[in-house]
Design a protein that fits this description.
This protein has 203 residues and is an alpha+beta fold. Helices cover 30% and strands 30% of the residues. It has a nine-stranded antiparallel beta sheet. The protein starts with a helix and ends in a 10-residue tail after the last strand.
Length: 203
């Protein structure tokens, strides 16, 4: 019995250490820069800067398959799977386009541009310039799955319709936490807005 309690104590200590490490890592990681233009009850309007991403397009619309395969391919690149065997810092969030063929994207750290990024070993990986954009964003916790993402996508659409804010069909999922992080998990669904909303979204 004593050995059992010691083993459980060691496991609990290891769990706490991993969670503290994960939370500390999140505070120091480079993130996709934006400003909040206006807050509503269930969502907010944001303006994102033009940014560069590494991306991989997958022939699936299932979140679990796309996130697992896409993350693996892109993580291989930033962990050294490139012509220079160069490690590139992880960024946040991991973005996924919500389409029939999902595209998984990692933000490129600001110190790089298309010319200075090492070429990937994996031919599926592309460098993608995302222009500056205005979006609506809705946030939810826990672990994401297809059902949750669709639920919050529909909730966001209903809220935007109620406010008379026009949006495009370009929806994205944003995930902020590694799979092993348990507490304070953050997920978002965002959608690009149409340009004629400018007067509606002023502070």
């Amino acid at each position: 019995m004593k050995i059992l309690f010691i083993s459980l104590g060691v496991l609990l200590l290891a769990f706490i250490v991993v969670q503290l490490y994960a939370m500390n890592a999140q505070r120091s990681i480079e993130t996709y820069p934006y400003v909040v233009n206006k807050k509503y009850v269930t969502f907010e309007i944001r303006s994102y800067e033009a940014s560069l991403f590494t991306s991989v397009k997958l022939s699936t619309k299932e979140f679990k398959e796309a996130s697992s395969k896409g993350f693996s391919i892109l993580a291989g690149y930033i962990f050294g799977g490139n012509e220079k065997n160069e490690k590139i810092s992880m960024t946040s969030p991991v973005a996924m386009s919500l389409e029939d063929s999902m595209t998984v994207m990692f933000l490129v750290p600001k110190k790089f541009n298309k010319e200075t990024l090492p070429q990937p070993s994996e031919s599926q990986i592309e460098f993608r310039n995302e222009p500056a954009k205005t979006v609506a964003a809705i946030t939810f916790g826990g672990w994401a799955n297809d059902t949750k993402i669709e639920k919050y996508k529909e909730k966001l659409k209903v809220a935007l319709d109620a406010e008379g804010i026009k949006y495009t069909n370009r929806f994205y999922y944003l995930g902020y936490n590694p799979p092993f992080e348990v507490f304070n998990r953050k997920n978002e669904v965002i959608v690009e807005l149409q340009s004629e909303n400018r007067d509606l979204i002023k502070k």
